Amino acid sequence: MTWEIVDVLIAGGGNAALCAAISARRQGASVRIVEVAPKFYRGGNTRHTRNMRCAHDSATETLTGPYPEEEFFEDLLRVTGGNTNQELARFMISESKEMLDWITEQGVRFQPSLGGTLGLGRTNSFFLGGGRAMLNALYRTAEALGVEIHYDAEVVGLERDGDEFQAARVRIGESVENMPARSFIAAAGGFEANIDWLKQGWGEIADNFLIRGTPYNRGGVLRLLLDAGAQPNGDVTQCHAVAIDARAPKFDGGIITRLDCVVFGIVVNRNAERFYDEGEDIWPKRYAIWGRLVAAQPEQIAYIIFDSRSLKLFMPSLFPPIRADSISELAEKLDLDPQALNRTVTTFNASVRDGDFDSTVLDNCHTEGLSPPKSHWARRLETPPYYAFPVRPGITFTYLGTKVNREARIMMQDGRPATNMFAAGEIMAGNVLGQGYAAGIGMTIGSVFGRVAGKGAADYAQQ
């Protein structure tokens, strides 16, 4: 079966896809979305998000102060270690200033930013009702505008004439159907749910990874694009990876399995040894390094340990902490060597230099003569009961994707931009995120480049 041609065909159903669809439709283009997931699980990882990071010049009803473009750029450089396409990064940051108003115009609502350990009240806007509410608002707007949406629809082939897209082959049920379009937008996420692909970079340890988001992001569209001559961008091992509760499900555990308590205690591996500075920086700028750190430890598991003074200082997760009245008892419950854990805690406690504890700033509570150090928020573990969370690497999304230009056009291996193929969201996030992560920036990438891709695809189709 061959479907009627549309102006814009979009593969994907999350934030980037919907921003692209709405943008294209508001340009007057006819738009069709094909989403591989069933309707209940639509939206990829957007379902699990909470906020987005956008530059802004002044405080608003939901933001406590300005967040200038240059500060945003400096934050990005810091978390990526400079591994970013600076032209695209600056473009995205500049465009992000319009996104909060534009997203609101599409029906999304924001709430005042959360307090506590996140410390994002000035930089990030939180969705009222979370990511699913944000997603549902975009779907309502897209449907009201006449965007055609199909679920359980997997793109399994691309038909091209040179570098010009002609049609996609889409599996719906038992049949593979031909969907022609005048332009194509890939917004189908990364490949984090494809363990075999992860193993190409990580090896067998990828079997111990947990996938925080959708099980439907298996990289099918990305593989088709790379096979069709799209220029790859990024490293197969680079990804948004955080430390999540080791008791989380293999797939789709979402935001509620993340743990924000690293800065309030110590983190040890299977040998009951610390392996990194838990207080290196403000948590939103460092939480996304911990997945990779845990991945490098024996059996890809670690344990966050803290005492009763810190129990109420962070947002609770899905699973309760493991509790014990002594460090030895806690070690036994974690199947760690009690002597080794007691030695680690005793050495840590002896190195702590008291200061003015303040979880909202880089305080002066630190260790001396300890390797690795704890640079901030160091307090002795001495007030029972004691608590622990077991953690494993939780992969949110991968950074290997397609290279794009500032028009969101996919760059081909011969160095030219594709005639009518665009990409937005996680499938091209590695252009901006070569490594590392800052809270909320994934939604910024999807929204900005989705909107740009939608406009560009519509303009091409209507020429």
UniProtKB/TrEMBL annotation:
Full protein name: Precorrin 3B synthase CobZ, cobalamin biosynthesis
InterPro entries from the UniProt entry: CobZ, FAD-dep_OxRdtase_2_FAD-bd, FAD-oxidoreductase_2, FAD/NAD-bd_sf, Succ_DH/fumarate_Rdtase_cat_sf
Membrane-spanning segments: none
Swiss-Prot/TrEMBL keywords: FAD, Flavoprotein, Oxidoreductase
Organism: Afipia carboxidovorans (strain ATCC 49405 / DSM 1227 / KCTC 32145 / OM5) (Oligotropha carboxidovorans)
Single Gene Ontology MF annotation: oxidoreductase activity
Keyword check for Cytoplasm: no
Lineage per the UniProt record: Bacteria, Pseudomonadati, Pseudomonadota, Alphaproteobacteria, Hyphomicrobiales
Gene3D superfamilies documented for this protein: FAD/NAD(P)-binding domain, Succinate dehydrogenase/fumarate reductase flavoprotein, catalytic domain
Cofactor: FAD
Domain FAD-dependent oxidoreductase 2 FAD-binding, first and last residues per copy: 7-434
PANTHER family membership: FAD-DEPENDENT OXIDOREDUCTASE 2 FAD BINDING DOMAIN-CONTAINING PROTEIN, FUMARATE REDUCTASE
